Amino acid sequence: MPRLLTAMMLFGASSLPLLCRAQSPEIIRLDSIEVVESRHQKVLKSSAPLFKVDESEFNRIGITDISDAVHRLPGVNLRDYGGLGGLKTVSIRGLGAQHTAVVYDGVVLSDCQSGEVDIARYSLDNVESLSVVIGDNDDIFVPARAAASASSLNIASYLAPSSAGPLELVAQFKAGSFGYVNPYIRIGKGFTDKFSMNLVGDYTYAENDYPFSLKNGAHTTVERRNNSRMNNGHGEINATWRPSTRSSLSAKAYYYDNDRQLPGPAIYYNNENHESLRDRNFFGQLHYRNAFNSQWSLQLHGKFNWASSFYQDIDGKYPGGVLNQNYWQRETYASACLLWLPTEKVAVDYSGDYFFNNFTSNLPTETYPYRHSILQSLTARYRDRRLTATARLLGSIYRNGARIGDGARDFERLSPSASLSFQPFAAEMFYLRLSYKNIFRMPTFNESYFYHYGNPDLRPETNNQFNIGATWQLKPGATWISDAIVTVDAYVNHVKNKIVAIPYNMFVWTVVNLDKARIFGCDLTASTTFNVGRRQEIVFNGNYSYQRAAPRTDPKSGDYNKQIAYIPRHSGSVTLGYENPWVNFSVHTTGVSCRYATNDNNPATRLGGYMDVGCTAYRTFRFSGHEVELRADVMNFLDRNYVVVARYPMPGRSWRCSVKFTL
After folding, report:
1. What is the 8-class DSSP label of residue 409?
2. What is the residue-wise DSSP string for 638-663?
3. To which H or E segment does residue 376 belong?
4. How far apart are CA 176 and CA 181, in angstroms?
5. pLDDT tens-digit profile of 36-83?
6. Single pTM value for the model
7. Cα–Cα dist 526/443, whole Å
8. Dist CA 109 CA 101 (whole Å)
9. 460-491 b/e (C-beta count within 10 Å ≥ 16 → b)
10. What is the DSSP secondary structure assignment for residue 459, as one 8-state letter?
11. What letter does residue 11 receive in the DSSP assignment?
């Protein structure tokens, strides 16, 4: 069976065209007809949990950056190492950041070294929408790689204009506490109805030297974060060519450069640190789409990605007084997606992806690992007015190697998933949904090869996800309540062969497949708009999540059935906004219950719960077809002292102001 599976998948992959990309799930173009489905309708009818926030809400609910936006979504745990320059990764429903695919304009971002994507490097000013999908929903015309994770965070940026027109210009300048400045510009132009381009650029600088309280037993001192400077820039070029109404070709070039200092953990009597890190990332990608007729559509996508990390620690304890560790990783990616619509109610998609990763460093122990990956998915969907049912089979082949020494274990597997959404009452906007997904994650290069840490014999970490939920929307009518929507989901995740690090001795750790874990919980969301007067609205958004995540390996172990480190049992957010003709205003809060920094829940590692309250005020002025938007934010208004990651304090009260001009 394994040999037959390998042969079938290699045959399918060998016929892949060189390019592929996921179609936007929002818009389907057939000749000159454009069908647009609203955000609320997609959330309501989705057969698997889908949570989305777009540009129209960023101001209304006071979102300040991407990490803030993600933190407002249910079931999401954000690992935040403090301040603007701190690493920020996303874990959904307690599975860890390696189980979350971060998708940027239809293509999965990758970090083969750690498996974690730092979302702090992506600017909210260039984001059109953000969404979280847990499992597989009914958007089937996507690359196989987009379905190869337990959940996905989808980031859609502003692309080139869709038609000919005057120059589009957006210029913005932000300034705030602790030396923060951030200019941003986006220029777009549709030269003809067939060709358009846009250019995007932004730069961020911040000292990040914020004060914080440091406790040691009964003693508390006020310290100031040092060695925390952030200095980064990012630029993009997007171009689109539409030879006909049925086809298009688009290209993107992206570059990011971040030269920052690393403050390190806050330790009593030792607040000095001399580490720095420079991250650079470049990628270029192409996307081709063609709707041949009403039944057949094709998407092709190709991408090359290059990233480097240069770490330095100036400390006299190293030979020569300086430690330099440099890392490089590269990826070549190609994918093809073919969609067949035999009837109005049935759709079938085949997607095939191939990508190659390699990794190098300047360490004397470097083995120069590489990996060939082939993913293929076959998906079928049935949809009528009241029922949507989707089934997918994902086939995966991973071939590992190293130029020096032994490569990691090869792997191949079939992973099924299915989802269902049903409207039981034709007269009510009420839907029930049920979904299941079997998926896994491959060990990262660090976990397989890192000196005195990695283990090339690791098996993938597997996960079975079950979800049952309901969604409801208030019928539109002559009422002072509009756009009311409520969702509730309950879930269970079973994790096997969980990858954990254990100490071999005082100086050497090793990674093994050891733990089993069970995670269950529920997510509740509610949003509505109250019409309280002429051109006046009160906007409410709220969510609550309960997560019980426990190791289940050995009943005799100290961590058995305890809460997994850094996962709170309770978390949520509430936003209340007032939209009016004068100055729009919102108050928002996010909060979590206590957590532990270790799986055995040692009281000494307990991290207290917190509530972070902020407020936003903004107004837009319009004149001669232009817009000027003024906005002011106060973050952590109550000046709470808290941490998300142990010994990495978050900023206290801070402010930010911005002015935005749109031509």
Report:
1. P
2. T----EEETTEEPP-SEEEEEEEEE-
3. strand 369-383
4. 7
5. 456 677 889 999 999 999 998 999 999 999 999 998 999 998 888 777
6. 0.91
7. 37
8. 7
9. bbbbebebbbebebeeeeeeeeebbbbbbbeb
10. P
11. H
